[in-house]
Structure formats: C-alpha cells, structure tokens
Amino acid sequence: MTATDPWIRRFFPSPDAPVQLVCLPHAGGSASFFRPVAQALNPRVEVLAVQYPGRQDRHHEPMIDSIGGLADHVCRAVTGAVDRPFALFGHSMGATLAFEVAVRLEQAGRVAERVFVSGRRAPSCHRDEQVHQRDDAGIIAELRRLSGTDQRVFGDDELMRMVLPAVRNDYRAAETYVCATDHRLRSPVTALTGDDDPKASHDEVRAWSDHTQGAFEMERYPGGHFFLVDHAPDVIRLIRERLTESAVAPR
C-alpha cells in the first residue's frame, strides 16, 4: 500500500507526529467527516481517515455490504499506511468496524494504543433492526430521526439519490453484523455516548468493557446519536489527551 491508497485520506499530513489516528466513518459517511478532526489534532496527531468505496471520489466502485468484508480491506490498508504508534476511532457503524479491524491487526501482531468507539453498542449487544429493508422514505425518516445529516440534503432530490444507496448498503452491513469472535482486545477502549442516543443504551455501551483486556472508560455527553458534532471540541480534547498519554507512557 502507498500514500495514494484509495482507502486512506491524509488531509493534513504530519510525518513528525508521534501517533496516528485511523478514523472510520458512520453508515453513509465519508472520510471528509473527519477533516475538522484532522485539522484540530494536527500536528501532534496525524489523522488517517478511511474512505469506503461507493461514495464521493470512489462512487464508481462497488460497495461492500458486510462489516467483515470492510474490515478485511481496511486492515490491509491500515497495515500499509501506519508507520508509527496508532489508535483507532470509529463512530456508529465505524465503531463496530474499528473493533473488527483492531482484532485483525492484533492477530497480525499490531496492537493499537487505544480504540475509541463512539455512538455504538458493544459487538455482543445485538438488536434486530431492519432499516436497510425500508423503502427510501423509511430510510430518510431514520436519517431525520438521528439528526446527523445536513438538512439541506433532504431538499435536494439529486443529492439524495446519490446518498441513499451508500446509506442503505452501510445499514445492511451494520444490521446484519454478528460478532463471531471472543477475542478480547489488548488495547484500552474508550467508549463515547450521547445521553439520548436511540441507537445505544448506556448498558449496551458499557458492555464494551467485555471486549478488552485493557483499561475501559465510558464518557457521556448531552445529546443524541451525533452528540460528537455538537461537542466536537470536548471530544477532540479527550482524544488528544488520551493519545498524548500513550505517547509519553508506552504500554
């Protein structure tokens, strides 16, 4: 893999940063969601944002509708891109994917400094959700409920036609996922959650502690599923503090 790998975006390259942070988007999301994070953490942390196929500049590529399939590809991309201590951050579907990527990397001998999981219940907590089987109106209703999509998008029919296939695909991946491993990460896990997130209860988020041998912490913020947008400065501060701790005190 090279710096031109289509899976990885380096919005603010920081070759001298002591740690890299691999960021995994939510369902329907893209790497550009993490551009402000990359800018805020630069130059102490180099952000590598993952771009899934089937959206933005990869719109011509076939999408992958399983977490396992995505994890295999992302693991290969991360293995080629990461060249120093690293951490993983995933929001919603991206949190589940971050876990599966971390498992694969550990099995290959590479352990993340920390895994940040945001807005997602633990892999062992299954819900029978079928949003991906709804018609377009049903999926749009779900997006409105979660308040994570720019309201201007809903008024642009052409843009919605471009966005909905990726959203449906990613919901299928997230909703059909079943944790098939009892592997407990060696990395510490930081779970972030919104007080009113309809997609993850506090108990479901706390269950992430069962998936690591390392330290576990849960940080709660006011808000719903996309609490991290409203509390971006606090979330970024937390990431910076935890990664700075890792840089000065290796595990």
UniProtKB/TrEMBL annotation:
Keywords: Hydrolase, Ligase. GO terms for biological process: lipid biosynthetic process. Residues 22-243 form the Thioesterase TesA-like domain. The keyword Cytoplasm does not apply. GO terms for molecular function: hydrolase activity; ligase activity. Its EC number is 6.3.2.-. Pfam families: Thioesterase. Belongs to the thioesterase family. This is Phenyloxazoline synthase MbtB. It comes from Streptomyces chartreusis NRRL 3882. The gene is mbtB.
